Amino acid sequence: MDADAIRQWTLVLDQLSYYELFRVSKEATYDELKYAFHGFCEIFHPDAHTTRAEWERTAINRVFKRGTEAYRVLSSPDLRIQYDAALRQGLGEAQEVVLGMTLNRHSSVAPGPQRLVDRLRTPAARPFLSRAEELLKKGDPQQAKIQLVLAMHMDPGNPALEAFQKEVEAAVKEVQKKKGEEAKKPWKKT
């Protein structure tokens, strides 16, 4: 990216919606948004521009902060709904209002994802984790545990999966305890 391109970005930055910033549609899925954000980071992450002139680094940093703000809002289901409503009402980014919420324009940290599946670091683990969550909800923690082990194999060392594993283990123990109590009950003849 040359100096002229950096100038162009700074000129239009405040006029772009968060969707336009990432070049995604308003119907973009979380995965599409995440993919677009990663591409954005490859271009604008400040660490990739440490040898540039001071004004260029400042401009790139401003663009990057706007991108992290956009990702923070669009990746949160609640904030995204509020942001979309604000856009429809014509409030726009200039007011930085999302239904009464003031966004911190200078925040460069995206919040953690809201769903467990969004905390995965590799897409290969997603189907296994989704199935594990589904099975746990249906009351089959033993099968959920198997699916979770597969997800953990695809995304080793993920703290979110390790926390979920404790929840699944507790559910497995509860089912085993109930089965043990049922086995101890005398048979009733009718």
Give a short overview.
The chain has 190 residues and is mostly helical.
Strand order of the largest sheet: 1-2
SSE topology string: HHHHHEEHHH
**Which term fits the overall shape?**
elongated
| Beta fraction | under 5%
Structural category is: mainly alpha
The CATH architecture designation of the largest domain is Orthogonal Bundle
Name the CATH superfamily assignment of the largest domain.
Answer: DnaJ domain
CA distance, first residue to last residue: 83 Å
Mean pLDDT: 81
Number of domains: 2
Instruction: From the 3D structure, determine the CATH topology of the largest domain.
Output: Helix Hairpins
Number of strands: 2
Number of helices: 8
The percent range for helix content is: 55-70%
What does the radius of gyration come to?
23 Å
Name of the CATH first level of the largest domain: Mainly Alpha
Unreliable spans are: 97-113
**Major beta-sheet overview:** 2 strands, antiparallel
